[in-house]
Amino acid sequence: MKKTIFSGVQPTGIAHIGNYLGAIKNWVELQNEYNSIFCVVDLHAITVPQDPQKLRKAVLEMAAIYLAAGIDHKKSVVFVQSHLSEHSELAWLLNTITKIPELEWMTQFKDKSEQHKNKVNVGLFDYPVLMAADILLYQTDAVPVGEDQKQHIELARSLARRFNHLYGKSFTVPQPLINKETARIMGLDNPLKKMSKSAANSNNYISLTDPPAVIEQKIKKAVTDSGTTIEYDLKRPAIANLMTIYKHFSDLSFDDIEKKYKNKGYAQFKEGLAETIILGLKSFQEKKAALEKNPKKLEKILQEGAKQAKVKAQKTLKEAKQKMGLI
Q1: Is residue 97 part of a domain?
Q2: Which residue range(s) make up the domain with 259?
Protein backbone atom coordinates (compact mmCIF):
# COMPACT_ATOMS: atom_id res chain seq x y z
CA MET A 1 0.00 0.00 0.00
CA LYS A 2 1.11 3.53 -0.75
CA LYS A 3 1.88 5.76 2.21
CA THR A 4 -0.01 9.05 2.67
CA ILE A 5 1.37 12.57 2.45
CA PHE A 6 -0.39 15.82 3.35
CA SER A 7 0.62 19.41 2.74
CA GLY A 8 -0.87 22.82 2.06
CA VAL A 9 -0.19 26.49 1.36
CA GLN A 10 -1.98 29.56 2.70
CA PRO A 11 -3.90 31.55 0.07
CA THR A 12 -2.36 34.86 1.12
CA GLY A 13 0.36 37.10 -0.22
CA ILE A 14 1.95 36.72 -3.63
CA ALA A 15 2.61 33.14 -4.78
CA HIS A 16 6.14 33.17 -6.17
CA ILE A 17 8.79 30.94 -7.69
CA GLY A 18 10.09 30.12 -4.21
CA ASN A 19 6.74 28.51 -3.34
CA TYR A 20 6.81 26.58 -6.60
CA LEU A 21 10.43 25.38 -6.53
CA GLY A 22 10.51 24.90 -2.76
CA ALA A 23 7.21 23.04 -2.34
CA ILE A 24 4.71 22.56 -5.16
CA LYS A 25 7.17 21.20 -7.74
CA ASN A 26 8.18 18.57 -5.18
CA TRP A 27 4.52 17.65 -4.57
CA VAL A 28 4.00 17.05 -8.28
CA GLU A 29 6.75 14.43 -8.22
CA LEU A 30 5.62 12.88 -4.93
CA GLN A 31 2.01 12.34 -6.06
CA ASN A 32 3.17 9.39 -8.15
CA GLU A 33 4.69 7.67 -5.10
CA TYR A 34 2.17 8.50 -2.35
CA ASN A 35 -1.52 8.82 -1.64
CA SER A 36 -1.42 12.60 -1.80
CA ILE A 37 -3.67 15.12 -0.06
CA PHE A 38 -3.10 18.80 -0.84
CA CYS A 39 -5.13 21.46 0.89
CA VAL A 40 -5.58 25.22 0.50
CA VAL A 41 -5.26 26.16 4.18
CA ASP A 42 -7.62 29.13 4.38
CA LEU A 43 -8.34 28.75 8.11
CA HIS A 44 -4.66 29.41 8.79
CA ALA A 45 -4.85 32.53 6.64
CA ILE A 46 -7.41 34.24 8.88
CA THR A 47 -5.10 34.33 11.90
CA VAL A 48 -4.31 37.81 10.56
CA PRO A 49 -7.07 40.10 9.20
CA GLN A 50 -8.12 39.42 5.60
CA ASP A 51 -10.42 41.22 3.19
CA PRO A 52 -13.24 38.66 2.64
CA GLN A 53 -13.62 39.28 -1.10
CA LYS A 54 -9.87 39.13 -1.70
CA LEU A 55 -9.61 35.95 0.39
CA ARG A 56 -12.31 34.18 -1.64
CA LYS A 57 -10.51 35.07 -4.84
CA ALA A 58 -7.15 34.04 -3.38
CA VAL A 59 -8.43 30.60 -2.34
CA LEU A 60 -9.51 29.80 -5.90
CA GLU A 61 -6.29 31.24 -7.28
CA MET A 62 -4.18 29.01 -5.03
CA ALA A 63 -6.19 25.96 -6.08
CA ALA A 64 -5.60 26.95 -9.72
CA ILE A 65 -1.87 27.25 -8.97
CA TYR A 66 -1.80 23.70 -7.59
CA LEU A 67 -3.48 22.28 -10.68
CA ALA A 68 -1.62 24.39 -13.24
CA ALA A 69 1.69 23.41 -11.63
CA GLY A 70 0.93 19.73 -12.24
CA ILE A 71 -1.06 18.46 -9.26
CA ASP A 72 -3.42 15.98 -10.89
CA HIS A 73 -6.83 15.91 -9.16
CA LYS A 74 -7.31 12.35 -10.49
CA LYS A 75 -4.19 11.20 -8.64
CA SER A 76 -4.31 13.55 -5.64
CA VAL A 77 -7.01 14.92 -3.36
CA VAL A 78 -7.22 18.71 -3.67
CA PHE A 79 -9.62 20.66 -1.45
CA VAL A 80 -10.13 23.73 0.74
CA GLN A 81 -9.49 23.34 4.46
CA SER A 82 -12.60 25.22 5.66
CA HIS A 83 -14.86 22.95 3.58
CA LEU A 84 -14.30 20.22 6.19
CA SER A 85 -15.37 21.07 9.76
CA GLU A 86 -13.42 18.01 10.94
CA HIS A 87 -10.20 20.04 10.85
CA SER A 88 -11.48 22.55 13.42
CA GLU A 89 -13.16 19.88 15.53
CA LEU A 90 -10.04 17.73 15.82
CA ALA A 91 -8.00 20.85 16.61
CA TRP A 92 -10.24 21.44 19.63
CA LEU A 93 -9.72 17.88 20.86
CA LEU A 94 -5.96 18.26 20.46
CA ASN A 95 -6.07 21.60 22.31
CA THR A 96 -7.03 19.69 25.43
CA ILE A 97 -3.73 17.79 25.43
CA THR A 98 -1.48 20.63 24.20
CA LYS A 99 0.64 22.47 26.75
CA ILE A 100 0.86 26.26 26.60
CA PRO A 101 4.70 26.32 26.73
CA GLU A 102 4.79 24.12 23.61
CA LEU A 103 3.04 26.88 21.67
CA GLU A 104 5.02 29.70 23.28
CA TRP A 105 8.22 28.07 22.00
CA MET A 106 7.06 28.18 18.38
CA THR A 107 9.46 30.33 16.37
CA GLN A 108 6.81 31.48 13.91
CA PHE A 109 4.51 32.63 16.72
CA LYS A 110 7.33 34.69 18.19
CA ASP A 111 8.10 36.23 14.80
CA LYS A 112 4.50 36.94 13.82
CA SER A 113 3.49 38.31 17.21
CA GLU A 114 6.44 40.67 16.96
CA GLN A 115 5.22 41.83 13.51
CA HIS A 116 1.58 42.20 14.61
CA LYS A 117 1.94 43.39 18.22
CA ASN A 118 -1.49 45.00 18.33
CA LYS A 119 -3.25 42.17 16.51
CA VAL A 120 -2.05 39.05 18.30
CA ASN A 121 -5.05 36.74 18.62
CA VAL A 122 -5.66 33.28 20.01
CA GLY A 123 -5.73 31.85 16.49
CA LEU A 124 -2.20 33.06 15.82
CA PHE A 125 -1.08 31.37 19.04
CA ASP A 126 -3.03 28.17 18.43
CA TYR A 127 -2.60 27.58 14.71
CA PRO A 128 0.16 24.94 15.17
CA VAL A 129 -2.51 22.76 16.83
CA LEU A 130 -4.78 23.24 13.82
CA MET A 131 -1.82 22.33 11.62
CA ALA A 132 -1.34 19.17 13.68
CA ALA A 133 -5.04 18.37 13.21
CA ASP A 134 -4.71 18.89 9.44
CA ILE A 135 -1.95 16.30 9.35
CA LEU A 136 -3.25 13.73 11.85
CA LEU A 137 -6.78 13.72 10.44
CA TYR A 138 -5.61 11.76 7.38
CA GLN A 139 -3.32 9.28 9.18
CA THR A 140 -0.48 11.00 7.37
CA ASP A 141 2.79 9.08 7.13
CA ALA A 142 4.94 11.93 5.85
CA VAL A 143 4.71 15.70 5.45
CA PRO A 144 6.79 17.34 2.72
CA VAL A 145 8.11 20.52 4.34
CA GLY A 146 11.09 22.82 4.43
CA GLU A 147 13.42 23.07 7.40
CA ASP A 148 11.50 26.13 8.66
CA GLN A 149 8.37 24.01 9.22
CA LYS A 150 10.08 21.12 10.97
CA GLN A 151 9.18 22.50 14.41
CA HIS A 152 5.47 22.30 13.59
CA ILE A 153 5.80 18.69 12.46
CA GLU A 154 7.52 17.88 15.74
CA LEU A 155 4.48 19.24 17.59
CA ALA A 156 2.17 17.07 15.46
CA ARG A 157 4.34 14.07 16.28
CA SER A 158 4.27 14.88 20.00
CA LEU A 159 0.50 15.28 20.05
CA ALA A 160 -0.02 12.02 18.12
CA ARG A 161 2.15 10.12 20.59
CA ARG A 162 0.52 11.81 23.61
CA PHE A 163 -3.02 11.07 22.40
CA ASN A 164 -2.09 7.47 21.59
CA HIS A 165 -0.59 7.07 25.09
CA LEU A 166 -3.59 8.62 26.86
CA TYR A 167 -6.43 7.08 24.88
CA GLY A 168 -5.04 4.21 22.84
CA LYS A 169 -3.60 4.01 19.33
CA SER A 170 -5.50 6.48 17.19
CA PHE A 171 -3.06 8.45 15.05
CA THR A 172 -0.17 7.66 12.76
CA VAL A 173 2.93 9.50 13.96
CA PRO A 174 4.00 11.50 10.89
CA GLN A 175 7.53 12.02 9.66
CA PRO A 176 8.83 15.24 8.10
CA LEU A 177 9.76 14.61 4.48
CA ILE A 178 12.59 17.04 3.80
CA ASN A 179 14.08 16.73 0.34
CA LYS A 180 17.64 18.00 0.57
CA GLU A 181 17.58 18.64 -3.18
CA THR A 182 14.53 20.88 -2.92
CA ALA A 183 15.38 24.46 -3.79
CA ARG A 184 15.47 27.01 -0.97
CA ILE A 185 14.93 30.25 -2.83
CA MET A 186 16.10 33.48 -1.24
CA GLY A 187 14.96 37.04 -1.88
CA LEU A 188 16.28 38.75 -5.01
CA ASP A 189 16.83 41.88 -2.92
CA ASN A 190 18.34 40.06 0.07
CA PRO A 191 19.93 36.65 -0.52
CA LEU A 192 20.21 36.07 3.25
CA LYS A 193 16.42 35.82 3.74
CA LYS A 194 13.90 33.53 2.07
CA MET A 195 11.80 34.89 -0.78
CA SER A 196 8.61 36.05 0.91
CA LYS A 197 4.93 36.05 -0.11
CA SER A 198 4.38 39.12 2.07
CA ALA A 199 7.50 41.11 1.14
CA ALA A 200 6.90 44.86 0.97
CA ASN A 201 9.36 45.21 -1.91
CA SER A 202 8.06 43.60 -5.13
CA ASN A 203 11.67 43.17 -6.27
CA ASN A 204 12.08 40.55 -3.53
CA TYR A 205 10.25 37.90 -5.52
CA ILE A 206 9.18 36.73 -8.96
CA SER A 207 5.46 36.09 -8.92
CA LEU A 208 4.20 33.00 -10.70
CA THR A 209 2.07 35.33 -12.81
CA ASP A 210 4.66 38.00 -13.60
CA PRO A 211 4.78 38.73 -17.37
CA PRO A 212 8.11 38.37 -19.23
CA ALA A 213 8.97 42.09 -19.16
CA VAL A 214 8.54 42.22 -15.36
CA ILE A 215 10.65 39.09 -14.87
CA GLU A 216 13.43 40.60 -16.99
CA GLN A 217 13.40 43.81 -14.95
CA LYS A 218 13.40 42.02 -11.59
CA ILE A 219 16.31 39.80 -12.59
CA LYS A 220 18.26 42.82 -13.84
CA LYS A 221 17.74 44.49 -10.45
CA ALA A 222 18.60 41.34 -8.44
CA VAL A 223 21.40 41.83 -5.92
CA THR A 224 24.79 40.40 -6.88
CA ASP A 225 27.98 39.80 -4.92
CA SER A 226 31.37 41.35 -5.37
CA GLY A 227 33.35 39.54 -8.04
CA THR A 228 32.44 38.86 -11.63
CA THR A 229 32.68 35.10 -12.19
CA ILE A 230 29.60 32.90 -12.49
CA GLU A 231 30.50 30.22 -9.94
CA TYR A 232 28.38 28.45 -7.33
CA ASP A 233 29.86 29.44 -3.99
CA LEU A 234 27.88 29.61 -0.74
CA LYS A 235 30.24 32.36 0.41
CA ARG A 236 28.69 34.43 -2.39
CA PRO A 237 24.99 33.98 -1.46
CA ALA A 238 23.54 36.25 -4.17
CA ILE A 239 25.06 34.43 -7.17
CA ALA A 240 24.48 31.08 -5.43
CA ASN A 241 20.76 31.92 -5.13
CA LEU A 242 20.44 33.03 -8.77
CA MET A 243 22.24 29.88 -9.92
CA THR A 244 19.90 27.75 -7.79
CA ILE A 245 16.91 29.32 -9.55
CA TYR A 246 18.58 28.72 -12.93
CA LYS A 247 19.35 25.09 -12.05
CA HIS A 248 15.81 24.22 -11.02
CA PHE A 249 14.14 25.90 -13.99
CA SER A 250 16.55 24.45 -16.53
CA ASP A 251 17.63 21.13 -14.97
CA LEU A 252 21.24 22.11 -15.76
CA SER A 253 23.77 21.31 -13.04
CA PHE A 254 25.81 24.04 -11.37
CA ASP A 255 28.82 22.78 -13.35
CA ASP A 256 26.83 23.11 -16.59
CA ILE A 257 25.85 26.69 -15.74
CA GLU A 258 29.43 27.59 -14.82
CA LYS A 259 30.68 26.22 -18.16
CA LYS A 260 27.93 28.01 -20.09
CA TYR A 261 28.87 31.37 -18.60
CA LYS A 262 32.62 30.95 -18.36
CA ASN A 263 34.31 34.24 -19.29
CA LYS A 264 30.90 35.95 -19.36
CA GLY A 265 29.58 38.61 -17.01
CA TYR A 266 26.54 39.14 -14.81
CA ALA A 267 24.60 40.91 -17.57
CA GLN A 268 24.73 37.88 -19.90
CA PHE A 269 24.02 35.48 -17.04
CA LYS A 270 21.00 37.48 -15.88
CA GLU A 271 19.66 37.69 -19.42
CA GLY A 272 19.89 33.89 -19.73
CA LEU A 273 18.33 33.40 -16.30
CA ALA A 274 15.37 35.62 -17.15
CA GLU A 275 14.80 33.72 -20.42
CA THR A 276 14.96 30.41 -18.56
CA ILE A 277 12.38 31.51 -15.94
CA ILE A 278 10.05 32.93 -18.60
CA LEU A 279 10.18 29.68 -20.55
CA GLY A 280 9.77 27.64 -17.37
CA LEU A 281 6.62 29.53 -16.35
CA LYS A 282 5.01 29.74 -19.82
CA SER A 283 3.03 26.48 -19.70
CA PHE A 284 2.04 27.04 -16.05
CA GLN A 285 0.73 30.54 -16.75
CA GLU A 286 -1.30 29.33 -19.75
CA LYS A 287 -2.88 26.49 -17.73
CA LYS A 288 -3.66 28.77 -14.79
CA ALA A 289 -5.33 31.33 -17.06
CA ALA A 290 -7.46 28.57 -18.63
CA LEU A 291 -8.55 27.27 -15.21
CA GLU A 292 -9.50 30.74 -14.00
CA LYS A 293 -11.66 31.26 -17.09
CA ASN A 294 -13.74 28.28 -15.96
CA PRO A 295 -14.31 28.82 -12.20
CA LYS A 296 -17.23 26.36 -12.10
CA LYS A 297 -14.91 23.54 -13.20
CA LEU A 298 -12.37 24.59 -10.56
CA GLU A 299 -15.03 24.70 -7.84
CA LYS A 300 -16.29 21.26 -8.89
CA ILE A 301 -12.78 19.80 -8.55
CA LEU A 302 -12.53 21.28 -5.03
CA GLN A 303 -15.98 19.94 -4.08
CA GLU A 304 -15.04 16.45 -5.29
CA GLY A 305 -11.76 16.69 -3.38
CA ALA A 306 -13.61 17.67 -0.20
CA LYS A 307 -15.92 14.66 -0.56
CA GLN A 308 -12.93 12.33 -0.90
CA ALA A 309 -11.11 13.91 2.04
CA LYS A 310 -14.22 13.80 4.23
CA VAL A 311 -14.43 10.00 4.16
CA LYS A 312 -11.03 9.63 5.84
CA ALA A 313 -11.48 12.69 8.06
CA GLN A 314 -14.82 11.54 9.48
CA LYS A 315 -13.45 8.10 10.28
CA THR A 316 -10.44 9.47 12.14
CA LEU A 317 -12.45 12.08 14.06
CA LYS A 318 -15.14 9.58 15.05
CA GLU A 319 -12.52 7.21 16.45
CA ALA A 320 -10.76 10.01 18.38
CA LYS A 321 -14.04 11.17 19.93
CA GLN A 322 -14.99 7.64 20.95
CA LYS A 323 -11.56 7.06 22.49
CA MET A 324 -11.99 10.26 24.56
CA GLY A 325 -15.39 9.12 25.84
CA LEU A 326 -17.58 11.46 23.82
CA ILE A 327 -20.96 9.99 22.85
Answers
A1: yes
A2: 202-289
Q: How many CA atoms lie within 13 A of 244 on its CB side?
A: 23
Give ∠ CA 150-156-162 in degrees, rounded to 5.
Answer: 135
β-strand partners of 40: 9, 80
Concerning whether 262 is annotated as a catalytic residue, the answer is no
In a domain, 196, yes or no: no
Q: Using the CB atoms, write b or e for 20-33: b if 16+ within 10 Å.
A: bbbbbbbbbebbee
**What is the spatial distance between Cα 305 and Cα 74, in angstroms, rounded to a whole number?**
9
Residue 194 among the catalytic residues: yes
Contact 298, 64 (CB under 8 A): yes
Q: Point out the least confidently predicted range of 77-81, 203-207, 223-227, 256-260.
A: 223-227
Residue 96 C-beta-side C-alpha neighbours within 13 Å: 10
Active site residue 197: yes
- 242 lies in the same domain as 273: yes
Catalytic residue among 194, 247, 288, 312: 194
DSSP type of residue 73: T
Q: How far is CA 97 from the centre of its chain?
A: 27
**307: which residues sit within 8 A by CB, 6+ positions away?**
none
The reply to whether 284 falls in a domain is yes
Total number of domains constituting the chain:
2
| Catalytic site residue from 3, 57, 112, 220 | 112
pLDDT digits 0-9 by tens, 274-327: 999 999 999 999 999 999 999 999 999 999 999 999 999 999 999 999 999 999
Q: Based on the number of CB atoms within 10 Å of its own CB, is 11 exposed (0-12), middle (13-18) or buried (19 or more)?
A: buried
Can you give the pTM of this predicted structure? 0.90
The DSSP string of 171-224 is S---EEE--TTS--PBPSS-TTSB--TT-SSGGG--BTT--HHHHHHHHHHS--
State the CB neighbour count (10 A cutoff) for residue 274.
21
